[in-house]
């Protein structure tokens, strides 16, 4: 009886010092069909005793060579798969993940005046259910103790400082399920975007050492059928000149910021303006191509004019923050100045003119 009383007292002490809602156990809980948990803590992805985003057993952090710009938010990515299950390697597209897989991406912003401290805004789960992928956005409470499922989405104003220390506000949008599908649509099927071989082919500093992510996933049983990392595709890091040429870095940026819609199976595939990293057809890259969607072009004639970024609709839409005019259409409320500078430099480097379509863009 004394042993049970002691256990109860320890449990109550934990509830006082942490959050009872997060003390669910140590093993990740998998849900593959509705109803899905209302609280993020019910998934048991993170260990409450070590901080809000300290991964539980089997929850593996990962990062991408070139990520999507999201108003300078920090992103914390994790993957979990059921015991004994592995993703199947795909050289070009997303891996084929097993049922039960959870991909987690948490968005956070710095807390002004507190160096190194962040405030979590949302955690998006992409879950491989019985009938395909399901997107689930969870919004963090002010106490940073848990996050609540918000299928309908929401928005919030975030006060922060820009890179020059000036006060600014970010109108941060938490997407609803339809908005998730807008970006994750691949031939009318919801699919992951980031975890592809070319994006994951980089080192990550794990708790047990720094290893290439593809090799590490293979070693722990999370990936099968993959070649060694030095034989797998690898995309450039958009802001690291040592990782690739101007063309390679610009194409990496467009692949991860635009091509999720602008690919043959994407929501903007019908435009014929395709921005995947391997695309080399100058017309599909927008080279002297008239837009085939009405309006929102700034009265400019071509998607891309070689040597002339300010005459290119691509730059015009990247500079916009107006709904239905900006590109990407969702996921940001501010302008990514550094990214635009990169694409400007790339377009400026392209040879030829719109009276000469013989030169392949980027060559």
How would you explain this protein's 3D organization?
The protein is α+β, with helices and mostly antiparallel strands. The chain folds into 2 domains: 26-231, no CATH class; 241-349, no CATH class. The protein is built from 7 helices and 14 strands. The chain has helices spanning 2-17, 177-184, 197-200, 213-220, 246-257, 313-319, 337-349, and strands at residues 60-62, 74-80, 87-88, 102-110, 118-129, 132-140, 147-149, 154-161, 167-174, 185-186, 189-190, 203-206, 209-212, 223-224. The protein has a 6-stranded antiparallel beta sheet, with helices on one face. A two-stranded parallel ribbon has the order 3-14. It has a two-stranded antiparallel ribbon with strand order 8-9. Helix 5 packs across helix 7 (337-349). The protein is globular and about 65 Å long. The protein starts with a helix and ends in a 14-residue tail after the last helix.
List keywords for this structure.
single chain; 19% helix; disordered N terminus; two-stranded parallel sheet; six-stranded antiparallel sheet; disordered C terminus; 7 helices
């Amino acid at each position: 009886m004394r042993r049970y009383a002691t256990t109860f007292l320890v449990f109550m002490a934990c509830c006082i010092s942490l959050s009872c809602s997060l003390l669910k156990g140590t093993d990740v809980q998998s849900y593959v069909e509705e109803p899905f948990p209302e609280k993020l803590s019910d998934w048991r992805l993170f260990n409450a005793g070590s901080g809000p985003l300290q991964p539980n057993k089997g929850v593996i952090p990962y990062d991408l060579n070139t990520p999507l710009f999201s108003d300078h938010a920090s992103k914390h990515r994790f993957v979990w798969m059921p015991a004994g299950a592995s993703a199947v390697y795909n050289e070009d597209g997303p891996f084929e993940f097993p049922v039960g897989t959870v991909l987690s991406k948490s968005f956070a912003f710095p807390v002004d005046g507190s160096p190194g401290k962040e405030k979590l805004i949302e955690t998006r789960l992409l879950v491989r259910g019985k009938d395909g992928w399901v997107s689930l956005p969870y919004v963090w409470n002010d106490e940073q103790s848990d996050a609540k499922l918000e299928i309908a989405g929401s928005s919030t104003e975030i006060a922060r400082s820009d890179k020059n220390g000036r006060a600014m506000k970010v109108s941060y949008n938490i997407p609803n399920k339809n908005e998730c599908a807008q970006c994750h649509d691949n031939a009318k099927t919801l699919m992951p975007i980031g975890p592809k071989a070319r994006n994951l082919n980089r080192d990550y500093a794990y708790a047990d050492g720094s290893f290439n992510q593809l090799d590490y996933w293979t070693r722990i049983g999370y990936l099968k059928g993959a070649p060694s990392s030095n034989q797998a595709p690898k995309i450039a890091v958009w802001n690291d000149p040592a990782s690739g040429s101007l063309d390679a870095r610009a194409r990496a940026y467009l692949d991860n910021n635009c091509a999720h819609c602008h690919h043959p199976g994407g929501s903007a595939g019908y435009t014929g303006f395709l921005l995947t990293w391997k695309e080399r057809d100058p017309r599909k890259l927008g080279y002297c191509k008239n837009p085939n969607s009405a309006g929102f072009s700034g009265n400019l004639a071509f998607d891309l004019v070689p040597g002339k970024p300010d005459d290119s609709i691509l730059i015009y839409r990247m500079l916009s923050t107006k709904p239905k005019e900006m590109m990407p259409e969702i996921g940001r409320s501010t302008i990514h100045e550094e990214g635009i500078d990169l694409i400007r430099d790339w377009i400026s480097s392209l040879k030829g003119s719109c009276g000469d379509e013989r030169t392949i863009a980027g060559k």
